[in-house]
Amino acid sequence: MKHNKDRILSMLLPLISLGLFFVLWFWLARAEDSMIPTPYETLLRLLEICRKPISKATLPIHIWVSLRRVLIAFFCAIVMGVSFGVALGWNRTFRALVNPIFEILRPIPPIAWIPLIILWCGIGELPKVIIVLIGSVVPIVLNTYSGMKEIDPLLLDAGKVLGAGRRQLLWEITLPATVPAILAGIRTALSSGWMCVVAAEMIAARQGVGFLIVRGQESGDTALIVACMLVIGVVSMLLSTVLIKLEGVLCPWQFSKTK
Amino acid sequence: MAVLENKISVRNLCKTYEMKGNSHEVLRNMSFDVRENEFLVLLGPGQCGKTVLLNILAELEQPDGGEIVFAGGRPRMGEIGFVFQKYALFPWKTVMGNVEMSLKLRGVDKETRRAAAQEYIDMVGLSGFEKALPKQLSGGMKQRVGIARAYASEASIMLMDEPFGALDAQTRYQMEDEILRICEKKKRTVVFVTNNVEEAIYLGDRILLLSSRPSSVKEEYVVDLPRPRKHTDPAFLALRNRIVSNTDLNI
Amino acid sequence: MKLKKKNQIKYFLLSVLGLAAFFGIWELSVRLGWVSDRTLSAPSAVIETLIRKLTDAKPDGSTLPQHFWQSLKLALSSFLVAVVVGVPLGWVMGYYKVADRLLTPLFEILRPIPPIAWIPIVILTMGIGMRAKIFIIFLAAFVPCVINSYLGIRLTDPVKINVAKTFGASPFKIFTTVCIPSSLNMVFTGVRLSLNSSWTTLVAAEMLASSRGLGYMIQLGRTLIRPDIIIVGMITIGITGALLNKLLALLEKKIAPWRYRDEA
Fold it and tell me: Cα(B139)–Cα(B160) distance, rounded to whole angstroms?
């Protein structure tokens, strides 16, 4: 009996909480001279920008522009970050030479690079890609490097007694053993990259979701802002869902569930 | 005829670790011989440096002093089979991938090494599990893969570091019979480390009892009981009592 | 042993060499005119500007210490409020089913929205004063605190809870004496994440809407085409971020020494 009551309660409570959320939102929006749009207004605005272009692009195009910037930078970041991290972890000379420089640059948040990058590259596509690259390469390097440092020494011993040379130890043992750490870094990198593209577009861009949200601010169009926030959130959620699915495929020994 | 020839001669092996200014002497003047194709058990209390000794034999670590002579010269890496207590299977490789690893590292082409590995997978009774990942296997099955992987390197010397130490008692007895069956089938020189007296007597042709740290060989026992041995055999129990009363207490 | 020492010296020298090459090439590339001094300033010029900015308010209206203090004040106060509110909330959500069911869906909605995306709506509704920025940074720091404390409770080893139950502990007693202590590891991870997040978000918020602070300073440096000011700002931001992290690590060591036992 009690069990049944628990189940109903656990199903009902999330609904209650979402209901309260919308009531609160509605109440805030209806308050005297409130700037906040109602949920309904937001939804209307969302549907409208899907059809009516702002700055020569409809919402799907803006999303695509932002996504393209992220994806280009993200793939460069994977290639550069993994090779750099592996070199750091594998070669002591390289590590001694380069790690101090990396350690100096690392604490600077990617967003703080925006002004300098804009000075260097203007306001075209390139600066946005570079900023996202900076934002996503660092977590990949860090995870790859620490993954290599924390590899189970037993696996290296097993490789050695099976006759692996130094090169084979790297390619056959160390790299596969580091894949889970690299994938974890890639996941952080993607969400950091998405945040960076929004920031970069908010500061200087003519298209993209970050631009759209600032346009909303400039024209006092709060329904547009909230609609953009929802879009940004949903895209970010979708990106991480896709990555988690991909991890199961790429690295079944670590991530996928088995019987 | 070749049975009594020394396969490995260990002389005056010493090893000391420096840790935070303290030095821990692990091996002191360790000397013994391993004969060709015998099943030699090194029996010693926990923490007595058995693993270090095996690591030195496998060249994973360097001794501070003493020498090791192999009949026919120092084997290269990959020419000694090693079975780890914690399996040390490659989690990203299937059973087949793990067993064929030594051949792959040697550059043997895919078909040949697959065929060779299959023989060893069948030998340890894992036919049908070739495509399984280690995390899908039970402890006993994992160690079967570990044994198959070591044997597949075609090494004439097998070093086994408490291979059944992480298994539950039931599986352990089963695996002891299994390893004897395999040794019967594929003659190899086996150095088997354990801290379990019954296991030592059940398996070994010869037992070397090690002292606690710094360890050296305390006593040699030749086990001439007929196989298959029985744990309840009076001769078995008598030998067990002799060894136990001579064993250093492990604090 | 000898060899080890020799190696250490060798690698230390290599590190020095790497740094020297980095700064040397940077300096030379500006001095020799490979890159224009309108896009990059030489390290020597940056140091000069850094020293001058310690007391000089030109051209951005405030001295470096004023910018710095403004930013630090904002970031730390919002961060502290977020920790004080967020961690206990995460604990309660993790332990009490009703709170979990009621609040977790809200966090699932809020979580994927980057804190930066909150800036426009907050500025429009709350203006560009301190209040707006504190709210934005609070949001940035709040979410990781809650989520990690929540997970910390949820990941408590059930064996420990059962042990407490056999001693006859009440649910509240179990919550305070078993679950909270064993969640601390995750809590510290969350606090660290939220510190980083609040510092980054602060820079973004100041870049978008402010008249003082380090983020404002580098943004103005861009408008004025003064790379030296931008780089001084970036260095200050980077060093402060690193120092805050170090400080937090020291604090953790004091509060939860078991976390560091392995590294010692």
Answer: 16
Chain B residues with CB under 8 Å of A154 CB are 84, 86, 88
Q: Please report how the helices C227-255 and C180-208 are oriented relative to each other, as an axis angle in degrees rounded to 10.
A: 170
Asked whether residue C7 falls in the same domain as residue C86, the answer is no
A155, A163, A253 ranked by CB distance to B77: nearest: A163
Do C102 and C176 belong together in one domain? yes
Q: How far apart are the C-alpha atoms of C41 and C46, rounded to whole Å?
A: 6
Same domain, C71 and C14: no
Topology annotation, domain B1-75+159-168+191-251? Rossmann fold (3.40.50)
- Categorize the per-residue pLDDT at C106 as very low, low, confident or very high, splitting at 50, 70 and 90: confident
Number of Cβ atoms within 10 Å of the Cβ of A55: 13
Residues C48, C26 within the same domain: no
Task: Tell me: do C50 and C167 sit in the same domain.
Answer: yes
pLDDT in tens, A31-85: 777 788 888 889 999 999 888 888 888 999 999 999 999 999 999 999 999 999 9
Q: Is B221 left (phi over 0), alpha (psi -120 to 50) or beta?
A: beta
**Interaxial angle between packed helices B110-123 and B139-152, expressed in degrees from 0 to 180 and rounded to the nearest 10:** 130
Residue span of the structural domain in which C29 resides: 1-35
DSSP line for B124-178? TT-TT-TT--GGGS-HHHHHHHHHHHHHHTT-SEEEEESTTTTS-HHHHHHHHHH
Structural domains counted in chain C: 2
Within 8 A of C123 by CB-CB distance, chain A residues are: 217
Of A224, A219, A202, A220, the closest CA to residue A211 belongs to A202
Pairing between β-strand B65-70 and β-strand B39-43 as defined by DSSP bridges? unpaired
Give the sheet arrangement for strand B6-19, strand by strand.
B22-35, B6-19, B65-70
Give the CATH number for residue C249: 1.10.3720.10
Cβ within 8 Å of A, B 69-98 = 76-82, 84, 86, 88-93
**A32 to chain C, minimum CA–CA distance in Å?**
12
Question: What is the reported pLDDT for A97?
Answer: 92
| Contact partners, residue A148, CB within 8 Å, separation at least 6 | A85, A86, A88, A89, A90, A174, A178, A181
Confidence of residue B249 (pLDDT cuts 50, 70, 90): low
* In chain A, domain spans: 1-34, 35-250
Residue type, B171: T
Helix (H, G, I), strand (E, B) or coil at A37: coil
What is the count of residue pairs from A and C with beta carbons less than 8 Å apart? 162
For chain C, the C-alpha Rg in angstroms (whole number) is 24
Residue C264 has pLDDT above 70, yes or no: no
Angstrom distance (rounded) from CA B234 to CA B223: 13
Residue A6 CA, chain-centre distance (Å), reads 37
Q: Tell me: do C31 and C49 sit in the same domain.
A: no
Touching subunits for chain A (3+ Cβ pairs under 8 A)? B, C
Element of type H or E holding B50: helix B50-57
**CA atoms in the 13 A half-sphere facing the CB of A70:** 26
> A35-250, what's its fold?
MetI-like fold (1.10.3720)
- Residue pLDDT, tens place only, C131-159: 888 999 999 999 999 999 999 999 888 88
Work out the widest C-alpha separation in chain C, in whole angstroms.
78
Cβ neighbours of B89 in A, within 8 Å: 158
Within this chain, do residues C58 and C22 fall inside the same structural domain, yes or no? no
